[in-house]
Amino acid sequence: MIEYGNPALTSGVRECWRKSFTMEDPHYTEYFFRAVYKPEYGIVDTEDGKAAASLIRIPHEMMFNGRILAVSFLSHAATLPECRGKGYMNRLMDTAVDICSHHELLTFIRTNDPEPWRKWGFEPVMNRVGYTLNREDVKRITNFGCAYEPSPVDMLKVYSYFIRRFNGFMIRDLEYFVRYKKEIASRGGKIVAYYDARNHIQGYAVILLKGREASIEECVYLDSMSLNKLINAALQERRTITVHVSPAENLSLIFPQAVKKEEPFLSARLNDPVLFSRLYGTKAQNVQDVFAMSRKPLNMNETV
User: Which of 50, 136, 221, 239 is the most exposed place for a label (fewest CB within 10 A)?
Assistant: First the structure.
């Protein structure tokens, strides 16, 4: 039986997560269920009254072509090992799509393998590009102006300027950045920022350490100087880093030695073509039509 928004099943959702995502940092799991998860986010298929499989639906607000849309992300689809192969996830996805169709125009799934989700109407809409750099690939500059642990206020301020270059982005507020800092800390990561001579923030980089390498999961910058400062700061953490950005950001112009790799990142489903077309005064039959309307490049980097 599928249940939606039942607080009594939270521990079951967590158990599905724990047994399915065995590589997940337990500190991040603790953070997620303490600070992010709400019972109304959980869609759960039960067997004998206990969670056998779960899916999480997190609502967001998205800015697209001058309008704010209610959307959501589907994430952390998980089935207990002993319950796999019994059709639980198919039933959960059918239910999730039905719920989303009654609440929003667009639904998103963050995935680097879009194929399994096509049967529910999800199609790839955005890739992400990783630029891998070694210490010798980047000219050394001083770390003057760089500081760890920028305030949520400063992060919101510079993000608000940065995101104006893009379209189709999730709206963030101060509370988002308060939570975001806690999330990165739970994953053992660091956040470094660059401030100009007037002590105005010009960018920040979210750095996750992975053995001998580091990954910049989000890089926000206002100009090439701030980008260079942030990259140099990250290279002080590890001699090899990978910077993840949107396809619209051509870092090869600044770092020609970087090894570039592009892969799928985000898939979307258009839940109501008629209502969407009416709202925007156009004719959109699928998600390709929707995002062909975009006046600027897309940029969505939300983890949950």
Answer: 136
